[in-house]
Amino acid sequence: MDPNDRARGNAAGRAGGRSKGTSIRGPSSALTDYLQEIGVTDYLRERRRREAEERERAVAEQGRQQREQQGEQEQQQANAEAENANEEGAEAERAETDHEETGDAEEETADSALAADMQHAEDQAQEAGPSTVTVQIKANGKGKRKSKKDDESDYEPEDEMTVRGGLNRSSARKGGRMHDCEMCGRRFLVRGEMPEQLLCAACRRSKDKASAADAASVARRAQSMKKKPAARHKMRKTEGGLLEFEAELPTLQNLCVRAIARHLDQVDSFGEVSGPSLDRLNRIISKLRVLDAQTMRLFMGTDRTSVTLYDCTRIDAAGLRRISDECPMLERLDLQFCGRLDGASLLALAQGLPKLQHLRLDGAFLVRDTEWAAFFREAGGRLRSFSAAFAGFGPQAMRALVTHSVNIEALRLAECSGFDDDCLAMLTVPITEYEEAEQEAERQLRAMAGKGKQAAGTALTWQPLSQLRVLELQRPHQPMACTTARRVVRALGAQLRVLDMSGFRDLDDDFMSDMGDHATGLQELALASCDSITGDAMAAFFARHNGFTRVDLGRCYMLTDNTVQELVRHSGTTLRHLSLNSVDDSLTQNGLLALAGQMFEQGVGGKAPRLAEQTLGCVGLEELDVSWVRSTTDSVLETIVSQCKRLDRISVYGCGSVSAYAPARPGLKYVGRECDTL
Questions:
Q1: Nearest to 335 by CA among 366, 365, 359, 301
Q2: What is the pLDDT of residue 620?
Q3: What's the longest Cα–Cα distance across the chain?
Q4: Do residues 311 and 286 lie in contact, with contact meaning Cβ atoms separated by under 8 Å?
């Protein structure tokens, strides 16, 4: 294979991989649902990973055993070869000794001394045991007969003892010295530099193998003793608290709930289960995506007055229609991710649930605008609250709602594709002939439906939603005119307690002026992403009203320190939730310190700000979001936490100055801190 082709293949393989380090989770895709339907779950992947690790350990153990067996075989073969060589050398020496003549007297004397030394070495070798490997060093042909004179001068008598000991004159000529092995005591020849440890060849090989085995054992022990990361699913929290596993030891009740959720297919009935436990079980089952048309019956009953299904992805339209048959006394229905709900199923619910008063439908994008209108004509008169998100809610549906649901108290619409400025204008008195004509037709339908119960003429005039207390119109897909929003505030502001117009980007200071004049009873206000409102107009509004419990001013980029100070001065003791997400342009540390009651005023002539007033601050604050407000530091948070004793959650996404040394106390949780790891 061409090296260039191999390089290109490796690069393509690296480019095709997916990163596995992220812990960011988004909406589940169709592929995720398909994998979970066929059984490819986190548990299955974890089991496959464990099986792969076990197979790797088995292969490693088998390889180690094979290496040990191979080493033993090599050792035995080396011992056998050494013994054969010793026997052959001894026979050759004996044959040469029989044909050679004895040397002169000096050589005999030297040989006798040498033989005595070798006798001592042979005794030591015999004491070491039969496994001792003998050494034979030949004289490189010096003992061959050339002539009688040469034979007499060059002949070196080497008997079996000298050959086995490894000491002869040939060895001495080649250089080196004989030493005793420190392990087995055998004598062996050492040439060159003196080693640190005197070991013969056999003992050196044994020691090397033992060292390699010890190193492998130490590596395996270190790998096994290596701290394993904590299981993520025990520390994970999904959006909206859909699934929360505590880091501490779970209670017996929680363990039982999780066991039931894992074996839901074997459960026939929950029996006597408390409401909180049943709701928690419902959340876990929905998170595991095992809630379908068969398992949903466990949460149904003829005596149930409230049903909440957190994930209806796997429930078809027929299963949703069956809710009215199994729960005819239902008063509150909450269906989330109900993408399979169609117009016929919605109308069946309206006809089969005569006591339905509260309805929430998230993700019902199959229901058309005309079908929404038919639903309100059927059940709008008994509705007290209605919520829809990610739906095709348009002008016809809005016209039917304001005409038939005159007793509605809470209206929540989020990211509805058909909701436009004309729909918003239907909440107030018609001021144009077009608006009057659009609403008159629907009022005629209401009069015809109520004939016999009331006079037909009473329904032909516009009736305000006099009972409306909660109005949440979040992130509309169509542009909303500021003048229309001001009309709604002037018509309904005095009776509203909760107002959420997040995403109305055209709202300006005139809108805040009308809010100050008419919306006098607000307790919760959300104006996130209304970036056309200035900080001075917002401060003037908060200076005229008090008693706010929840305020969301995220991404209102023109807010200043004075805005936060006025909010704390008039609503600091009642404020529970505050969001200043991404308010980073003009908000400084002085504005954040106002939450702790420290009111700074700007210095004159370039002087530093000075502390002008000390108040109680937000003593009841429980949740604070200062994400992407880069003036947030450890010292600022320490001042806020020391004053706000009830604070238990702080969101600090994008705040690089918040470190692991930020103030901590039992019950306080930081969300989005960069130094934290999952």
A1: 359
A2: 94
A3: 154
A4: yes
Helix (H) or strand (E) holding 611: strand 610-614
Q: What are phi and psi of 208, to 5 degrees?
A: -60, -45
As a whole number of angstroms, the distance between CA 587 and CA 577 comes to 18
Give how far Cα 134 sits from Cα of 77, 112, 118, Å.
Answer: 14, 21, 12
Query: Which tens digit of pLDDT belongs to each residue from 321-348?
Result: 999 999 999 999 999 999 999 999 999 9
Asked if residue 6 has pLDDT above 50, the reply is no
Q: What is the CA radius of gyration of the chain?
A: 45
DSSP 296: G
* Cβ atoms 333, 323 nearer than 8 A: yes
Please name the residues in contact with 331: beta carbons below 8 A apart, sequence gap of 6 or more: 305, 306, 355, 356, 357, 358
Residue 633 predicted with pLDDT over 80: yes
Which residues partner with 78 through β-bridges?
Answer: none
H/E stretch holding 651 reads strand 649-651
Average pLDDT rounded to a whole number, residues 167-176: 52
DSSP code string of 510-531: HHHHHHHHH--S-SEEE-TT-T
Backbone angles phi, psi at 360, to 5 degrees: -135, 125
Q: What is the pLDDT of residues 226-261, one digit of tens each?
A: 544 433 334 444 444 334 444 467 788 778 777 877
Taking only the tens place, the pLDDT of each residue in 356-374 is 999 999 999 999 999 999 9
* Amino acid in the structure at residue 138: K
List the structure tokens of 308.
């909440």
DSSP state of 177: E
Three-class DSSP labels, 44-88: HHHHHHHHHHHHHHHHHHHHHHHHHHHHHHHHHHHHHHHHHHHHH
pTM above 0.85, yes or no: no
The burial of 170, by beta-carbon neighbours within 10 Å (0-12 exposed, 13-18 middle, 19 or more buried), is given as middle
Token readout for 437 is 């004509």
By C-alpha distance, which of 599, 672, 667 is closest to 632?
672
| 529 conformational bin, left if phi > 0, alpha if psi -120 to 50, beta if neither | left
Q: 274 falls in which pLDDT band (50, 70, 90)?
A: confident
Tally of helices (H runs) and strands (E runs) in the chain: 22, 17
DSSP code of residue 454: B
Task: Provide CB contacts within 8 A for 292, sequence distance 6+.
Answer: 314, 315, 319
**Distant-in-sequence, close-in-space partners of 476: CB < 8 Å, separation ≥ 6:** 415, 416, 419, 420, 503, 504
CA 297 to CA 268: how far, in whole Å?
Answer: 9
Work out the number of other CB atoms within 10 angstroms of the CB of residue 603.
10
